[in-house]
Write a structure and sequence with these properties.
The complex is a heterodimer.
Chain A (H helix, E strand, L loop, with lengths): L1 H20 L17 H7 L24 H9 L1 H22 L4 E3 L8 H23 L8 H18 L7 H24 L24 H25 E3 L2
Antiparallel strand pairs in A: 1-2
Helix pairs in contact in A: 3-4, 4-8, 5-6, 5-8, 6-8, 7-8
Chain B lengths: L4 H13 L6 H15 L6 E4 L10 E4 L1 H21 L7 H16 L3 H19 L5 H29 L4 H11 L7 H14 L7 H7 L6 H24 L4 H24 L3 H21 L3 H29 L4 H4 L7 H15 L5 H15 L4 H25 L12 H19 L2 H9 L5 H4 L3
Antiparallel strand pairs in B: 1-2
Helix pairs in contact in B: 1-2, 1-4, 2-3, 2-4, 3-4, 3-10, 3-13, 4-5, 4-10, 5-6, 6-8, 6-9, 10-12, 10-13, 11-12, 11-17, 12-13, 12-17, 13-15, 13-16, 13-18, 13-19, 15-17, 15-18, 16-18
Classes of the chains: A mainly alpha, B mainly alpha.
């Protein structure tokens, strides 16, 4: 009966969505929205404060927002405050996992299989490559697709590999806590620097030189913030992995 | 002082506090005290973040409305934190994040940023309720809360696809100038209304509330029923009065939901045999009443209603949860004669309860009377009648409860309340009585306390 009611509720909701959005004059068809009047156009043109004209990759300097990657410009510059919030969401989730599962004396959960020597050694070789890719993705977040969140997830996945391939392996969780705390605090402190140390400044303002668009050293605080996010995300997810794969020692 | 510090400082402290677990509860007390203190030095303004003006960047709005909300939430949060910091040391970092989230909710002027803070505050709330030691109820809350905020997000996505902006005042302006009828935005607003309805405990979206509040403790009870409820109602009020366009069929549906919550909440409270259940169902119907007052356009009085409810629920849940913990359960029969040994707490509890019911010479009377008067003047006779009937039911079960708590034939139970708690409840009770008699400041300010106007909200 419960399943049937749920099915009916889903059907009603689906019907409601289709009828109210079909032929809705305000809701544009896929790909047909006129963005010239919208805020998104200003993010693409970098013209939220003033119009810079044509932008050339590798030449144009001192834009209002420096990242060549438009998504990064929005996520880590125009709407960086939301990203700080999302970082906090992950932070409190990992705190919650630690609150519910964590304890002082913990040991690895006994697994049914014992990885052989080749798997253990091979995974350690692979670990470095995955870790470096993660770091690369985080550092180049302002230039290429990726950034702190995917980079951090990759860093954590290299840790997950070690955990899965070696049933004895444990990281020093204290180090990760330290990294997590320092990276998060630095993100907020960078934001506060813009507010407090610069006259007429704003929280999370990009107070460094934006440089030439497309260079590795460009976009001011954006790459710094993205690396911090990568470290924080990586250490938080690694901490969550550790919490899930260990148990209270009897 | 920039209001951004109310979010940034608790957050920074939370990040630092995980390294200094031994001192984290001192940090919590210090930061929540400083937040209250710092509010006195804030100027009313629109705060731009990152240097990009609205609607391109995110803005925070500090106006009279959010300032009152911040005072209320920060003071109540500080009280709850002080009373519980020793017992729930482990949650200090989480409480710091929740303070940042609640302040963000009240301040933000951006609809997506609102979702982010809803998630931050929401996850903190799920973790606070884990102290109830009822994992299934917490899981229920988690699933329903997440579903609610997802519906809010879905509604927001639809609005963004239609109007291409996330800033609240810009969105309201776009909707106003677009010239489309109210029909086009009915679905997104319904989804967002349901999303907030889950958090604000409106029936039928509130089945989590029973599991959480009926087994709450001295931290989770006041936190969820008082602090969170106040913050969510205030944000809901801001959306209802400034952003949402609710007309036609949607208005009928929404009003139906509210009337159902109001009546069913009181009816369930009336038939409950447990003290906590009476309180929680009464807060369900109070939440619906607040939304109803916002919808009928008396935002100033709705704010006072929220203030009255939040302070009252703080006292009621604190006293009940401490007594229930020492007595083992919260049946009305167990509580019989509780106040014969604790006259001070009993008098404060009584005063606050009578204020919730809305008897003369208490703060609750002033708000209810003015709401009724304004509704009559505006010519809507259905709502005052409904409010009077539900207040009458409320009066019956609360006074029945009070009689049970004061009177017993057998032995009265022994419960010890510590000094800080006594002090807090007495101060709140005295304040409800003072502002119930000396009504001038309340009367004068209610009309000025309009929710921010659109031109003030965005600096574009």
């Amino acid at each position: 009966m419960k399943n049937f009611l749920a099915f009916v509720a889903v059907l009603v909701l689906g019907f409601l969505i289709i009828t109210s959005l079909n032929n809705n004059e305000a809701f544009p068809n896929y790909g047909e929205a006129d963005i010239s009047e919208r805020v998104s156009q200003a993010y693409i043109d970098r013209s939220a404060t003033e119009n810079p004209g044509d932008i050339t990759f590798g030449e144009t300097t001192d834009l209002e927002s420096g990242p060549a990657n438009i998504v990064t410009a929005i996520v880590a510059d125009y709407r960086s405050f939301d990203t700080l919030g999302e970082v906090t969401v992950l932070f409190i989730s990992s705190l919650g996992v630690a609150l519910l599962l964590g304890g002082v004396n913990r040991k690895r959960i006994d697994l049914d299989f014992h990885p052989n020597f080749m798997l253990r050694v091979g995974s350690r070789a692979l670990f470095g490559i995955i870790l470096m890719t993660g770091v690369y993705v985080a550092i180049h977040g302002h230039l290429t697709p990726g950034g702190g969140f995917p980079g951090g997830a990759m860093i954590a996945s290299s840790m997950l590999l070690l955990y899965l391939a070696d049933d004895e392996f444990r990281v020093k969780i204290k180090g990760f806590k330290m990294l997590e705390s320092v990276a998060g605090s630095l993100y907020v402190l960078i934001g506060l620097t813009g507010l407090l140390l610069i006259s007429g400044g704003f929280f999370l303002e990009n107070f460094l030189d934006n440089g030439v668009i497309g260079n590795l050293f460009s976009a001011g605080i954006v790459p710094i913030v993205y690396v911090l996010i990568g470290l924080k995300v990586g250490s938080e997810i690694s901490g969550i992995i550790d919490n899930f794969l260990t148990e209270e020692a009897v | 002082m920039s209001a951004i510090l109310l979010i940034a400082v608790p957050l920074l402290t939370a990040f630092v506090s995980i390294l200094f677990k031994k001192y984290s509860h001192y940090m919590l007390i210090a930061v929540s005290f400083l937040s209250v203190f710092a509010l006195g030095y804030m100027d009313l303004e629109t705060i731009t973040i990152g240097g990009f003006d609205a609607p391109f960047g995110i803005v925070l709005i500090l106006d009279n409305y959010s300032l009152i909300g911040l005072y209320l939430v920060n003071i109540l949060f500080f009280i709850v934190a002080v009373l519980n910091c020793k017992e729930y040391k482990k949650l200090s970092s989480i409480l710091l994040v929740s303070l940042a989230g609640l302040n963000g909710l009240l301040l933000t002027g951006d609809l997506f940023n609102l979702f982010v803070f809803l998630e931050v505050a929401g996850i903190a709330a799920y973790l606070i309720t884990t102290t109830n030691k009822k994992p299934l109820a917490t899981f229920n809350y988690l699933v329903q809360g997440t579903l609610g905020s997802s519906l809010y997000l879905l509604g927001l996505i639809l609005l963004y696809a239609m109007f291409g902006t996330l800033n609240m005042s810009d969105m309201a302006r776009e909707i106003g100038t677009s010239g489309y009828g109210a029909g086009v935005t009915a679905l997104p607003f319904l989804l967002m209304f349901i999303g907030f309805g889950v958090e604000a405990k409106l029936l039928p979206f509130n089945s989590w509330a029973k599991g959480i509040l009926a087994s709450s403790n001295s931290l989770s009870g006041p936190m969820i029923a008082s602090v969170y409820a106040a913050a969510i109602s205030l944000v809901f009020g801001r959306l209802l009065t400034n952003v949402f366009v609710i007309e036609g069929t949607l208005l009928t549906i929404v009003m139906g939901i509210l009337v159902f919550s109001l009546v069913a909440g009181e009816a369930m409270a009336f038939s409950s045999k447990k003290v906590k259940e009476i309180l929680l169902y009464s807060s369900v119907s109070q939440a619906a009443l607040v939304v109803l007052v916002f919808m009928t356009g008396f935002a100033g009085w709705a704010v006072y209603l929220i203030i009255g409810n939040a302070t009252a629920k703080l006292v009621l849940f604190l006293v009940t949860n401490i007594a229930a913990k020492q007595l083992g359960d919260d049946e009305v029969d167990t509580f019989k004669g509780l106040f014969t040994n604790n006259k001070v707490v009993g008098l404060a509890f009584t005063a606050v309860t009578l204020s919730v019911v809305g008897l003369p010479f208490f703060f609750g009377f002033v708000t209810k009377m003015n709401i009724l008067e304004n509704m009559f003047l505006s010519g809507a006779y259905v709502w005052p009648a409904l409010i009077l009937i539900t207040s009458f039911i409320e009066g019956i079960y609360f006074i029945r409860l009070l009689l049970n708590l004061w009177h017993t034939d057998g032995d009265s139970p022994e419960v010890k309340f510590d000094f800080v708690l006594k002090y807090v409840v007495v101060v709140i009770a005295v304040l409800t009585m003072i502002f119930g008699v000396y009504t001038k400041p309340v009367q004068d300010s209610a009309d000025d306390l309009v929710v921010y106007s659109i031109t003030e909200g965005g600096n574009f």
